[in-house]
Backbone:
């Protein structure tokens, strides 16, 4: 089972609306030639096979500073925690509206203290779980103008960045007291993008720095709280996908003209480095992790992976990868032999 393309690829929507303008260009070329290193890995642990039927259809990973791993399974509406040694420590969640229940949870992030935050879109709340799997807090959020939280980033200040499917301004900063403040897009062209072109990935470094990278566009942003630190190109340039508009008497239907070339299929941040799994149209698609310095946007190098992956997470010396192409999804914890450079 391949990870569902997040609201994208062959999506068609029927709504009453006007034409969308052509997509503006954030950048016109990539930042450098890709430099691929092919390291050897040790497998620390591996979970998956016909004997390990814990998962339904996992899609998201989040790693803690001590090398534990959280796996989000939207099919079962559960989060599963693995110890640094690969043991299943606990599983939490079921479909519903009460305590210990979630509805349409699609995003999570590990907290700086080793817990995990779930974005419960269906119940308009954020759910904080302790490292031991106890429900610590449920925080109601106002979601009148959006229906889904596509990404979440926990900042060291206690603030939380939500990446939603709102039309105009997708990002919301939620304070520990429950306040919600819009985050102004760091690029004026964002406002003229079609909503199918706006989707992306959000990740935090567990200080107040977080990043957003377009999934099918040509750049990414670094932010500190609500302030813009920089706007940068990916190493491999891809253009925003064209949108085709089909009209009938009562509706307007939008779709992508072709299957998009993913600039950033998945993304994570560890300290001052952003890690990106690129799609693109090269032989490296889904097989490398591109690395960037989030302090200045500089491309560093690319790390070749043993196989194609659907999602990943990183800590200091671990790379966790998810392969859900088969009937029984697999999660693997890898360590790169030698110095990463």
Residues:
């Amino acid at each position: 089972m391949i990870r569902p393309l997040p609201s994208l690829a062959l999506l068609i929507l029927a709504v009453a609306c006007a034409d969308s303008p052509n997509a503006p260009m954030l950048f016109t070329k990539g930042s450098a030639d890709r430099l691929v290193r092919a390291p050897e890995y040790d497998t620390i642990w591996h979970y998956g096979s016909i004997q390990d039927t814990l998962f339904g259809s996992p899609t998201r990973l989040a790693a803690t500073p001590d090398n534990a791993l959280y796996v989000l399974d939207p099919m079962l509406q559960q989060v599963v925690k693995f110890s640094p040694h690969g043991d299943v420590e606990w599983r939490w969640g079921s479909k519903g509206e009460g305590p210990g229940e979630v509805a349409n949870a699609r995003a999570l992030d590990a907290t700086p203290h080793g817990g995990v935050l779930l974005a419960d879109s269906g119940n308009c709340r954020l759910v904080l779980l302790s490292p031991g799997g106890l429900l610590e807090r449920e925080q109601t959020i106002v979601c009148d103008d959006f229906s889904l939280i596509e990404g979440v980033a926990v900042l060291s200040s206690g603030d939380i960045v939500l990446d939603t499917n709102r039309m105009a301004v997708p990002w919301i900063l939620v304070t520990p007291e429950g306040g919600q403040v819009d985050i102004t897009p760091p690029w004026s062209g964002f406002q003229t993008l079609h909503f199918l072109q706006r989707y992306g990935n959000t990740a935090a470094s567990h200080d107040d720095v977080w990043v957003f990278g377009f999934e099918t566009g040509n750049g990414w942003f670094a932010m500190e709280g609500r302030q813009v630190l920089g706007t940068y190109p990916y190493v491999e340039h891809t253009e925003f996908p064209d949108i085709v508009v089909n009209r009938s008497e009562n509706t307007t239907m939008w779709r992508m003209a072709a299957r998009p070339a993913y600039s950033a299929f998945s993304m994570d941040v560890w300290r001052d480095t952003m890690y990106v799994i690129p799609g693109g149209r090269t032989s490296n698609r889904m097989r490398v992790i591109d690395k960037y310095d989030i302090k200045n946007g500089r491309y560093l190098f690319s790390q070749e992976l043993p196989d194609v992956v659907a999602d990943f997470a990183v800590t200091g010396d671990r790379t966790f990868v998810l392969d859900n192409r088969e009937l029984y999804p697999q999660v693997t914890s890898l360590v790169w032999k030698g110095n990463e450079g």
Remarks:
- The CA atoms of residues 115 and 130 lie 5 Å apart.
- The chain has one domain: 24-336.
- The first strand starts at residue 12 and ends at 15.
